[in-house]
Amino acid sequence: MKTLRKISQSTVSPRPSINARAERRSRAGFTLLELLIVLAIILVIAAMVVPNLIGTQQQANINATMVTIKSAENTSKMFAADHSGSFLVGSGQSAWQGFINPEPVRGRQLPPYYEEPPVDAWGQVLNYEWDGTGHNKGQGGKALKPAIWSNGPNMQDDGGSGDDINNWTSATAPQ
Q1: Range of 124's domain?
Q2: Tally of domains in the chain
Q3: Percent of the chain, pLDDT > 90?
Q4: For residue 153, is it within any domain?
């Protein structure tokens, strides 16, 4: 006896109608409601992240300023090494000009220690003070190195206190 094989129907689907194709084409994008929901989610995430980034930027500016102050302090030590152990006497802009255009030493013209005055992370020129015997910034007596400080985040000169960042206190970051 012969076995008959049953031929199954083809799995090929019928061709979609014109209306079905048009409907699929119109559903190719997102609805306005879907876009608004995604936008709301992005805004919520941004609201949580942005405050952290702002605080991080502030601390990064303080750290960068402390590095600049340390570099200026080292430059003043190089100046002292070239000038028989004496730091540059002066304060403010005139002191920085002394680093930019140093006086000849023993008939020898020295190259500039700076091309322009050093600035903090907020673009403000650093403050410098040395009277030849010390400075009265900080606690007790005369210091052994020049006072160098930034006006800090508020860009107001508080003489090295307040939110100013300086080289004579161990904790120079504003609270």
Answers
A1: 57-166
A2: 1
A3: 51
A4: yes
